[in-house]
C-alpha cells in the first residue's frame, strides 16, 4: 500500500513495544487493524501482548542487547509503561525512532523530576519537597502540614511506594519503610479533593494536538475502579483541564500520548498529580465511545498518519475489572 505522505510508514512496517501487558495487547490490536506488525519485548513468556503479536523477545527490560535486537527489527518503538529500563530506551533511540522520547520518559518516571518540571512551567501541583535523608524529611514538616504523603520517587504505581504520614511519631517508620539505596523520596501535600480527573493528550510529529475529554476517575484502594465520561464538572473546569494537558504536551515536546492526572480541589482548583506518557487505564472507554481510541491514536502518531478525531459519540462509564475477581 502506498502511504498518504512520504513520512507515513507503509502497512506491514513493524512497531516495537516495550512491555507486554494489557496496554501493550490493546496497542497490538490497534496496530493489526491498521495493517502493522508488532514486536514485543517482555520478560514473561506468552505475555498478554506477546500472545497476539508477530514476535516476542523474552528478555529483561535491562538487557540492552535485547533492546538493540528489537530496535533493529522495527521501524519505530514505543513503551506501554514508565518503569522500563532507561538505558535500554536510550539504546533503542540511537538505532530507531522511539516515542515518546527518552527525555519525556526520564521526567515522567521520576516524581521529583516531574514535579520540578511542572513547577518550572507554572503548572499547579500539590506542594512537594524532595527527600534524601531522614533529616530532610523531619525538616519538611515546616513546609507541609500533617498529614502529608511520602512516596518513592520512582517505581510507584497503584498506591504502591507511598504512605500517609499522620504525625511526627510516624516519620521514622515511614522513612524506613520506603527508603531504598539509590532511590529518592518525595513528600507531597495531602489533598482533600472533590474528584480526580485525567486528560489524555495526543501530539504528532508536526506538533498537532488532540485531546480526549476529561475523565472523572474513582479509585478503590488506590487502583482505578470507575471512569465516567464526560466528567461531572463545570465546562470551565473541563476547558482548563484540557488547556493544562495541552500545555504540558507542547512544552515537553511529546510525540505520542501523555495522560495528565489531576485533583479538582474543593475550592475549584486543578492540581496536576502525575504524568503518564502512554495509553492510560482511564482511556479504555475510547475503544467503544470515541471515533478514534487512544490506542489507535498512538499507532497513527507512530506511523506518521494524521491525528484521528477524539470526540465521544456517547457518554460512557468504564469499570476496571482486575484479574483477581475470577479467583
Which descriptors apply to this entry?
Dna Ligase, domain 1, alpha+beta, 26% strand, 3 domains, D-amino Acid Aminotransferase, Chain A, domain 1, four-stranded parallel sheet, Rossmann fold, 327 residues, six-stranded antiparallel sheet
Write structural notes for this entry.
The relative contact order is 0.14. The strands form three sheets. A six-stranded antiparallel sheet has the order 13-12-9-10-11-14. The protein is α+β, with helices and mostly antiparallel strands and 327 residues long. It has three domains: 85 residues, Rossmann fold (3-Layer(aba) Sandwich), CATH 3.40.50.20; 63 residues, ATP-grasp fold, A domain (Dna Ligase, domain 1), CATH 3.30.1490; 130 residues, D-amino Acid Aminotransferase, Chain A, domain 1, CATH 3.30.470.20. Helix content is 28%, strand content 26%.
Structural class: alpha+beta
The fold-level CATH name of the largest domain is D-amino Acid Aminotransferase, Chain A, domain 1
List segments where confidence is low: pLDDT < 50 over at least 5 consecutive residues. none
Sheet with most strands: 6 strands, antiparallel
Overall 3D form: globular
Q: How far apart are the termini?
A: 46 Å
The CATH architecture name of the largest domain reads 2-Layer Sandwich
Strand order of the largest sheet: 13-12-9-10-11-14
The CATH top-level class label of the largest domain: Alpha Beta
Number of domains: 3
Content of β-strand: 25-35%
Order of helices and strands: EHEEHEHHHEHEEHEEEEHEEHHE
Q: Count the E strands.
A: 14
Figure out the total of helices.
10
Helix fraction? 25-40%
Oligomer: single chain
